[in-house]
Amino acid sequence: MKKIAVVIPACNEEAYIERCLKALKSARLYFFQHVGKLAVLPEIKILVVLDSCTDSTASKVQQSGIQTISCHFKNVGKARHLGVQHMIEQGCDWICCTDADSFVQRDWFQVMLQHQPADVICGVVDLDEWGHLSTLARQTYLSHYQDKMDHRHIHGANLCFKAASYLQVNGFQQLDCHEDVDFIHRLEKAGAQIVWSNQLRVTTSSRLSSKIAVGFAHFLQKLELKQAAKKPISLCK
């Protein structure tokens, strides 16, 4: 962890991107204030991949002083891969992924350091709001979700890994959804050392609409439709 990168794909996320970046800046500052004695302090770079944005997302990111690159994929797998490749080419050896509608907890970077050595760390997510969800949806979600160490949840909103491990399995594929799950499954097959941590935490939006047809919002919609008990739910984030 000599040079850390955070990669955030964003497609029309003007409602959430400022919250996301504010939390990352706060976590970066907290890390440098509490990291203790290290021979060399790592750099922490943040990159937003602007994918087909037509709203004010780009201007809000630019006003925050965060680095951006642009693409017109409308594909989260391709956008993530572009961002990760870009940061690896800049010499980053530890890559962190989160989402524009999510915000990391203050000790996010510190927890990553505490979990070393690791090839990959898979964290957990909390929902930012429950008020618009039914009691049944909340109960079903909480009974499904394993908020514990050695869980097996995979979230693109809370995922970090060695650059070398990413390159070993050819990174994220060009998938509209589940690019994170596909990536981790390939790393598992390759024998990567994976830490499944509930100490690494990110809060994510509980919105019920999204650009991704079968993403996390779709998962919550299925809970609202009371389909959770009838068939397996595929959790994509």
TrEMBL record:
Lineage: superkingdom:
Bacteria
Predominant location: membrane
Compartments, as annotated in UniProt: Cell membrane
Keyword terms, alphabetized: Cell membrane, Glycosyltransferase, Membrane, Transferase
Q: Name one GO cellular component term.
A: plasma membrane
Query: InterPro entries from the entry?
Result: Glyco_trans_2-like, Nucleotide-diphossugar_trans
GO MF, any single term: glycosyltransferase activity
Name of protein = Glycosyl transferase
